[in-house]
Amino acid sequence: MRVLVVEDEAFLAEMIAEGLRRDALAVDVAADGTEALRKLNFGAYDVMVLDRDLPGVHGDEVCRRVVRLGLETRILMLTASGTVRDRVDGLGIGADDYLTKPFAYDELLARVLALGRRSRPALPPVIERAGIVLDTARRQADRHGRPLHLSRKEFAVLEALLRADGAVVSGEDLIEQVWEEHTSYRTNAVRVTLSKLRAKLDDPPVVETVPGVGYRIAS
């Protein structure tokens, strides 16, 4: 899952981003509304964690533009104001969920994952294929009942391949879905991560390489 965190408080933005990355999500950060809109124009995000009170382009306007452009990005709006009127206003302009500051990280994570499952088409919380069971809510995976101890990137790559439901996923698509935009070594990282993932999945081999095209999970 790919997430955009839009927050002008640098410490809070980095805290959210690092937490989500530890939970196997690909996260980019924008410090204001202008930067957020630029990133949205050039990248597809499943969920945006959006501070409402942004400098420059206000969070409300960012939200309106996402709706107006028909983007499929789900919006979790953050604000220091927790009145009913503010929540109603935020949801009324197109936000999918609303969280008041200060908040517990575990609640933010749960809301982000829930919004990701509501993307179009809806994503199931548990995915099963070729003897693999991946629980996106609990961040757990096993194969034929054997627990898989995966790094966050291995988990995210496996999730992307399983969600494709047997279709081929290109290396470029894996980069787009799993790695942050400023990671310079992403192409090599795909190969390294897939090699480690294959070893952990063990025999019989289940991740197939389609030469010149990409990768898929065998049926």
Descriptive notes:
42% of the residues lie in helices and 21% in strands. The protein has 8 helices and 11 strands. The chain has helices at 10-22, 33-42, 59-68, 84-92, 105-117, 152-163, 171-178, 186-201, and strands spanning 2-6, 26-30, 47-51, 74-79, 97-100, 126-129, 132-135, 140-143, 146-147, 207-210, 214-217. It is elongated and about 55 Å long. It has a 5-stranded parallel sheet with strand order 2-1-3-4-5, sandwiched between helices. A 4-stranded antiparallel sheet has the order 6-7-8-9, covered by helices on one side. A two-stranded antiparallel sheet has the order 10-11. Strand 4, helix 4 and strand 5 (97-100) form a beta-alpha-beta unit. Helix 6 packs across helix 8. The protein is an alpha/beta fold and 219 residues long. The mean pLDDT is 87. The longest helix is centred in the last third of the chain and has 16 residues, at 186-201.
